[in-house]
Design a protein that fits this description.
This protein is of the alpha/beta class. It is built from twelve helices and 27 strands. Bound molecules: adenosine-5'-triphosphate (ATP) and magnesium ion.
Length: about 575
């Protein structure tokens, strides 16, 4: 798929759903869910999953639940629950009153587990986790049955109840499903259903001393909620036979619970180049101080992306372009950048900001004069109107818009000695001289004259100049801080280096420009307002901004369009 062409063909999940619908399965209902574990902040991969689940429900007139799979109180907490809710809303989706928690079903799951024990399909195992692991063996040879596997049902029932009542220490016993110790699929070798954990849960408090394993809770929660299509990532493919086994057992215990019976469909994780999408590694980067918190604009977390200035629109667009795949792949960061440029190009007001300022004096412009020039806010949006931008004798321009010894005028359209350019929305200027610091070689002042009859919109000078550069009036400029971000890693696939991934962090991923200047129309902007700094890129106001000092984050650069920016 090229960047400019929309993918309108059906993906394989849509095909499956349409086939189910055409067969009249589930009474024509499509019900999906997004099931995060509240043990970290969501990232761009989760965003793709959210867009997929909510998007399918929207496309087929269905519903989507937000369900927190909160089965592990050791790693979960409400901070994450709140952040996840906020992120899903920000992406533009709503789950109405369908917010659920696996912990809502702890009673029901317990009851089902008891029923499984009674059916002879589950047992309490007194082996240690180490012993269980050893007896499970390797896929190529059958495993070994636990000596507790055939203990009387009554004994398991009694022990399981006492596990629940907190009579035994952590790790002393587990409840296991009795499936098949010879299966080549390791998931089916009597998986653990419950472990003992004397740990407070963020929702159920100290009610429980045992907690269900994810595999036992997840599929059953889907069934309880009437989920028709359980969409998950590829690593769950090998778990599917176990989920099916559980549902088959439950069909005998509580047939109503598996009407409809959730159909699991796996798709490939969405990964992004030059970054990582693993909650554990993201947590390490945050906790070990490699980045400044979960919303660091360099991170691929939704919080980070948002602070960086990305719109939810652009993320949904990205998810659509990435689509769903059956095999793992890494999507290009440049695709994400393309999506945000497309969006901001239409919506972001244009302003002038000079990031690497050098002073320019227009020697024939009156010293005490300031003109208010009318400059359009967005050429892509006829409704956007114009704003007044002050122009005066002393300006700042971008240092690299001037060259002491420029190459041929065919190659360098900007300013140099005896060269002419147009100042955006203002006049044509001619460079008459400049000063340089002899020690550093830095240009300290550029002197020009302007053509009084070359004012933009009223130009009668008859001159044609190739280059147009941006500027701000020195007396009116607002000093601001600008944070420029580069890729977080220098390697396209840092996750490929396993636990060595931190060795590939980009030491220059953040550059802070302490004093840049922007035009005064930006006074009073609010956190996360977005702008195009003409010829530089897209920027948004960082929440660190104060009354005294505005801070801007660079969202993404522009493709340099200065040569094209003809302005008369
Ligand atoms: P964990 O290792 O903690 O399970 P996880 O990234 O899978 O991490 P979950 O909270 O379980 O996190 O994920 C919620 C949902 O998002 C799941 O359905 C999961 O399959 C999906 N998901 C997670 N990562 C990605 C990704 N990179 N691309 C697409 N979907 C993802
Ligand atoms: Mg997961």
């Amino acid at each position: 798929m090229s960047e400019n062409e929309e993918n309108t063909s059906k993906n394989f999940i849509e095909e499956i759903i349409e086939e189910d619908l055409s067969k009249g399965k589930n009474g024509g209902v499509v019900h999906t869910r997004f099931p995060p574990e509240p043990n970290g902040y969501l990232h761009i991969g989760h965003a793709a999953s959210i867009c997929l689940n909510f998007g399918l429900a929207e496309a087929y007139n269905g519903m989507t639940n937000l369900r927190f799979d909160d089965t592990n109180p050791v790693k979960e907490n409400v901070e994450y629950v709140d952040a996840i809710r906020d992120d899903v809303h920000w992406l533009g989706f709503s789950w109405g009153d369908r917010e659920f928690y696996a912990s809502d079903y702890f009673d029901k799951l317990y009851e089902l587990a008891v029923a499984l024990i009674k059916k002879g399909k589950a047992y309490v195992d007194d082996s240690t986790l180490e012993e269980i692991r050893r007896m499970r063996g390797v896929p190529t040879e059958p495993g070994e049955e636990s000596p507790y596997r055939n203990r009387p049902v009554e004994e398991s029932l009694n022990l399981f109840e006492r596990m629940k009542n907190g009579e035994f220490p952590d790790g002393s016993r587990v409840l296991r499903a009795k499936v098949d110790m010879t299966s080549p699929n390791m998931q089916l070798r009597d998986p653990v259903m419950y472990r003992i954990l004397h740990k407070e849960h963020h929702r159920t408090g100290n009610t429980w001393f045992i907690y269900p394993m994810y595999d036992w809770a997840h599929g059953q929660s889907d069934a309880i909620e009437g989920i028709t299509h359980s969409i998950c990532t590829l690593e769950f493919e090998v778990h599917r036979p176990l989920y099916d086994w559980y549902l088959d057992q439950i069909a005998e215990i509580d047939p109503g619970m598996v009407q409809p019976r959730p159909r699991q469909i796996e798709f490939a994780r969405v990964n992004l180049s030059y970054t990582i999408t693993s909650k554990r590694k993201l947590l390490e980067l945050v906790e070990e101080g490699y980045v400044d918190g979960w919303d660091d604009p360099r991170l691929p977390t939704i919080k980070g992306i948002r602070r960086r200035g990305y719109t939810s629109n652009s993320i949904r667009y990205f998810a659509k372009k990435v689509g769903v795949a059956k095999r793992d792949k890494v999507s290009e960061l440049s695709l994400l950048e393309y999506c945000i440029r497309e969006d901001l190009n239409k919506s972001a007001p244009r302003v002038m900001g000079v990031l690497d300022p050098v002073r320019l004096v227009i020697t024939n412009y009156p010293e005490d004069k300031t003109e208010q020039l009318d400059i359009e806010n967005n050429p892509e949006d006829p409704e956007a109107g114009t704003r007044a931008v002050p122009f005066s004798r002393e300006l700042y321009i971008e240092a690299d818009d001037f060259m002491e010894n420029p190459p041929s005028p065919k190659k360098f359209f900007r300013l140099g000695p005896d060269r002419e350019v147009r100042l955006k929305g203002a006049y044509i200027i001619y460079c008459t001289g400049y000063d340089k610091d002899p020690k550093t070689g830095k240009i300290t002042e550029i002197r020009c004259t302007y053509d009084t009859d070359s004012k933009s919109g009223e130009d009668t000078s008859g001159k044609k100049v190739k280059g147009t550069i941006h500027w701000v009036s020195k007396a009116d400029a607002l000093p601001v801080e600008v944070r420029i971000y580069d890729r977080l890693f220098i390697d396209a696939d840092p996750a490929g280096h396993k636990d060595d991934y931190k060795k590939f962090l980009n030491p220059n991923s953040l550059q802070i420009i302490e004093t840049a200047y922007v035009e005064p129309s930006l006074k009073g902007v609010k956190a996360l307002d977005r702008f195009q700094f003409m010829r530089k890129g897209y920027y948004c106001v960082d929440p660190d901004s104060t009354e005294e000092k505005l801070v801007f984050n660079q969202t993404v650069t522009l493709k340099d369009t200065w040569a094209k920016m003809q302005d008369k």
